[in-house]
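testing teh design pipeline on a random one, pls ignore if ur not involved
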C-alpha cells in the first residue's frame, strides 16, 4: 500500500481516504493487507473497526448504512435484477483480468529489469506461486495468445448481451442504479486491453457509455481520482 489521499464520494457525498495498492508489485499479497482481506484481492473498505471486502458486498453495505440516495432498488424484482448485473460484471472481471496482466501490467513491468521487479515482489510475498506468476507476466507467458483471443471473444459476447438488454437509458430501463455503477467501469476499461467498441455495432451500449460518462457524479469521480 502506498500514499493515501482524501476524497469525497461523488454520489453519496461521503468523505473517504484512498490507500493505493500497487498490483504490479503484488502489494495485495502483503501480510498487512492479507490481515484485512485474506483473499488478497482489491478493493477493501475499512469503516471504523469494520472491514468489508468484495466490491458488491461493499456497495450493498454502504447503501444500507448511508441510504441516501438509494442505489439498490426497493422493489425486490428490480433489486434482484441489479444484483444479477453485478454478478454479470464479476464474470466479466474474471475474463478481463488475464488480459490486463498480458497487455497492461506485463508491459509496465518490462519498463524495469526483471531483477528490480522481483525484488519488489519479494518484499510483498514469499509465496512461490505468486512469484512464479509475476515471472510469467514479465516474460509474457502467463496468458497465451490463443487464450487471449478466446478471452477477447468472451468479453465481446458480454457486450452483445448488454446491447440486447439495453431497452432504455440505463440497465434497469429508465432507472439509474447500482447496476450501471457496477458494469460501466468494466466496460470503460475495454480499450485498455485493446478491445474497441464500435458505435455502429454497439449503438445502444455506446449511447449508454456516453450518458454515463456525462453524469455529474462520474465527472466528479474523474476529477478526484488518485
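output:
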Amino acid at each position: 500500500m502506498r500514499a493515501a489521499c482524501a476524497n469525497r464520494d461523488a454520489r453519496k457525498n461521503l468523505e473517504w481516504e484512498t490507500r493505493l495498492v500497487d498490483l504490479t508489485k503484488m502489494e495485495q499479497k502483503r501480510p498487512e493487507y492479507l490481515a484485512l482481506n485474506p483473499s488478497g484481492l482489491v478493493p477493501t473498505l475499512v469503516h471504523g473497526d469494520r472491514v468489508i471486502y468484495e466490491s458488491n458486498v461493499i456497495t450493498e453495505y454502504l447503501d444500507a448504512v448511508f441510504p441516501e440516495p438509494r442505489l439498490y432498488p426497493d422493489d425486490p424484482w428490480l433489486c434482484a435484477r441489479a444484483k444479477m448485473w453485478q454478478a454479470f460484471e464479476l464474470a466479466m472481471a474474471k475474463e478481463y483480468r488475464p488480459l490486463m496482466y498480458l497487455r497492461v501490467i506485463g508491459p509496465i513491468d518490462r519498463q524495469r529489469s526483471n531483477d528490480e521487479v522481483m525484488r519488489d515482489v519479494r518484499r510483498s510475498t514469499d509465496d512461490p506461486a505468486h512469484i512464479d506468476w509475476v515471472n510469467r507476466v514479465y516474460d509474457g507467458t502467463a496468458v497465451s495468445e490463443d487464450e487471449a483471443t478466446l478471452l477477447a471473444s468472451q468479453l465481446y459476447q458480454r457486450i452483445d448481451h448488454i446491447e440486447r438488454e439495453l431497452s432504455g437509458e440505463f440497465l434497469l430501463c429508465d432507472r439509474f442504479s447500482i447496476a450501471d455503477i457496477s458494469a460501466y467501469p468494466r466496460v470503460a476499461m475495454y480499450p485498455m486491453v485493446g478491445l474497441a467498441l464500435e458505435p455502429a455495432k454497439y449503438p445502444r451500449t455506446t449511447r449508454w457509455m456516453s450518458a454515463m460518462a456525462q453524469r455529474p457524479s462520474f465527472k466528479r469521480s474523474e476529477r478526484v481520482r488518485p
